[in-house]
Amino acid sequence: IIVDFHAEATSEKLAMLCHLDGRVSALVGTHTHVQTADQRITENKTAYITDLGMTGVVDSILGVKKDIIYNRIVNYCSDRFENAEGRCMINGIILETDNNGRAVGIERINE
Fold first, then answer.
1. Residue-by-residue DSSP string for 21-71
2. Which of 36, 26, 22 is nearest to 4 (CA)?
3. Which residues are registered as beta bridge partners of 89?
4. For residue 45, is it left (φ>0), alpha (ψ between -120 and 50) or beta?
5. Which of 15, 67, 76, 107 has CB atoms 3.0–4.6 Å from 94's, for a disulfide?
């Protein structure tokens, strides 16, 4: 079982880890789109990372053209999102489990 927990605060994600530790193979956080470097495997064999990160254009905001997001925040405009163009990155993890679903490896991908 892999749980993707879409929450803003790291404290929420860590509280969920306390609740699910040993009951799931992995708890991965999403939402901020910035990959964290806190991957680990707990004593109860649950893999964890606070945020997987983003796959998309590096020079963007959330993968969207920067001016659209900027105008949305500063000028309260609600322009339709348009994908940014340019050099891309991929963030994520490689998760390894044993035959019982317990995490034995977690490696960040940040290319």
1. TTTSSEEEEESS-S--S--EE-TTS-EEES-----EESSSBTTB-HHHHHH
2. 26
3. 56
4. left
5. 107
Q: State the amino acid at position 3 in one-letter form.
A: V
Residue type, 92: G
Q: Which helix (H) or strand (E) holds 81?
A: none
In contact, 72 and 66? CB cutoff 8 Å: no
pLDDT at 66: 95
Q: What is the largest CA-CA distance in the chain?
A: 53
pTM for this one? 0.88
C-alpha gyration radius of the chain: 16
The confidence band for 74, taking pLDDT boundaries of 50, 70 and 90, is very high
